[in-house]
Structure to design on (262 residues):
């Protein structure tokens, strides 16, 4: 069905006539002090039956109010996904630093992520996120368009894991591409372009640079970390879960207000 047919179906399910929609729209127009919110019964019929006839923004708002829909749901009937504004904007960076004036995350559509952290979680240890999180729940988000624990892996860098410090600090979360399970050799111009991998070391996890020499997998730390390169038999003692494609980490400790003295 096209948008008009869907709106007609919704109206019929609510038991509303086109004239009743008009009467209800008059109340909205009166309260908003704007006649643009009014929809005549003939206009309702036109919107429902003529594919080229689309309601304007004010009348879309009125229909959303009467039919118990969100404004975004009305737009979606006409092929406009308002949730994508944040996604597209992040792909069109402006020249100047600026604030993005999108809706609060709580008002946006939800994504599936685990809702509870396991009581067994040891924040000192590097872990795979799906293994340290409990039941799944629906959590609102806007700019996390590609966040999908069902098909990607996410890891937590333990508070005692300084392998790639200061490039990746302890306490960071990393996104992992599970399609990459062997080191990729590229000409990196700097340490930021050098591929980073998330490893399963059987008794623990680790995150760092890697190299594969014959059957030996080298876990290479950042020079500033003062840690030594570790060597494992591949894939008996260690294997690569995936390549790190994103990092979320704190770069400063937030200032906290002290409670008022009593």
């Amino acid at each position: 069905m096209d948008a008009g047919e869907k709106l007609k179906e919704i109206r019929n399910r609510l038991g509303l006539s086109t004239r009743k929609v008009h009467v209800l729209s008059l109340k909205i127009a009166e309260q908003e002090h704007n006649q643009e919110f009014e929809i005549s019964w003939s206009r309702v019929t036109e919107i429902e039956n003529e594919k080229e006839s689309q309601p304007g923004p004010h009348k879309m708002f009125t229909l959303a109010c009467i039919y118990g829909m969100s404004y975004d749901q009305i737009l979606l009937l006409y092929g406009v996904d308002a949730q994508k504004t944040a996604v597209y904007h992040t792909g069109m960076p402006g020249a100047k630093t600026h604030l993005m004036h999108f809706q609060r995350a709580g008002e946006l559509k939800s994504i599936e992520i685990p809702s509870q952290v396991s009581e067994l979680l040891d924040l000192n240890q590097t872990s795979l996120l799906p293994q340290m999180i409990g039941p799944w729940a629906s959590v609102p988000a806007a700019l996390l368009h590609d966040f999908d624990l069902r098909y990607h892996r996410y890891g937590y860098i333990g508070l005692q894991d300084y392998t790639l410090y200061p490039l990746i600090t302890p306490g960071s979360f990393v996104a992992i591409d599970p399609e990459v399970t062997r080191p990729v050799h590229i000409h990196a111009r700097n340490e930021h372009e050098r591929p980073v991998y998330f490893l399963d070391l059987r008794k623990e996890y680790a995150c760092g640079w890697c190299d594969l020499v014959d059957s030996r997998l080298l876990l290479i730390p950042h020079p500033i970390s003062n840690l030594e390169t570790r060597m494992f038999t591949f894939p008996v003692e260690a294997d690569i879960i995936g390549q790190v494609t994103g990092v979320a980490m704190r770069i400063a400790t937030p200032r906290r207000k002290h409670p008022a003295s009593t």
User: Anything to note?
Assistant: The CA atoms of residues 117 and 133 lie 5 Å apart. The chain has two domains: 3-77, 106-248.
